[in-house]
Amino acid sequence: MNQEFIHDFLKIPGVLGVALIKGQALPYFYIKQQNLEWHKKYTLTQSIRENITKIPEGAELFDFQVMGYYAYSYKLNDNLRFLVLTNADIAANKLRELAAKQLKSELQKNIDDTITTFKLLTEIIPQPKGVVTTGTTESYVTGNSSHVASEEVNSTIEELLKALNCLSKFSSNYMGSKLIANYWQLTRPNVEWLDKFQINRSAEITFSGISTETVSALQHRWIKEWAAAFIKQCSQIIQDLPNMIEQDGLDESNRRLLLTPTLIR
């Protein structure tokens, strides 16, 4: 039932996305695919994380502006909040305001079901995916999302580790291992599973678990998002590094594992 309410709510004009806030963490965040490119979503997510640390304890409603959008955080219980992202002041649109309050009431009825619904929403519905930013040129997935997901599921952690370390070693040749190690730490998405990946001072990445396991489509997406954020961060120092990585730093197999090309050949 929650899933139907959320899908109907997302159809309302001006509603861009929804999220669950747990304490001061943002475990589930969904933005309509057509509304925001991946690199902007990444920046927006970081900005929202900064703002939710300012929510007064016990506040029933907390709103703030972020990157030109409006965010409204509604209390569900003492440790969980529901966030709505809109492109205009929600108070100016009674339909959106009323719908948000109705959705809040529905989500409060069964918190466990609410968490499950948001988990499914962020796993099943495709999200914008960015790859490499070189100057003003950007590439994004334009193919069938099920094609991408099926390819991701067939990868093991061991294969991903090898690809990540190839990327790390190549980047270290130009920027130094210390800076590269810091950039991996800085750009790692706030996902508990990714904390199992350890980066030492030499920018070597290891995994504290069973490396022969096959990753899920969601886990593979997290890795690709991490790689994309890392490459984008590096490009602020060496602007042409993303092109260099794609042309010389990774072979075809590793490009498929870490990058999301505009067209999958």
Keywords for this structure?
single chain; 265 residues; alpha+beta; Beta-Lactamase; 2 domains; two-stranded antiparallel ribbon; 10 helices; 9 strands; 19% strand; elongated
Task: Please tell me about this protein's structure.
The chain has helices at residues 2-10, 38-52, 94-109, 111-124, 145-153, 157-175, 177-187, 217-235, 241-249, 252-258, and strands spanning 15-22, 25-31, 61-66, 69-75, 80-86, 130-134, 137-140, 197-199, 205-207. It is of the alpha+beta class and 265 residues long. The chain folds into 2 domains: 2-124, Beta-Lactamase (2-Layer Sandwich); 130-258, no CATH class. Strand 6 (130-134) and strand 7 form a beta hairpin. The longest helix is centred in the middle third of the chain and has 19 residues, at 157-175. The termini are far apart. 29% of the residues are buried. Mean pLDDT is 79; it is low at 124-153.
Mean pLDDT equals 79
| DSSP, total strands | 9
Number of helices: 10
Distance between the termini: 40 Å
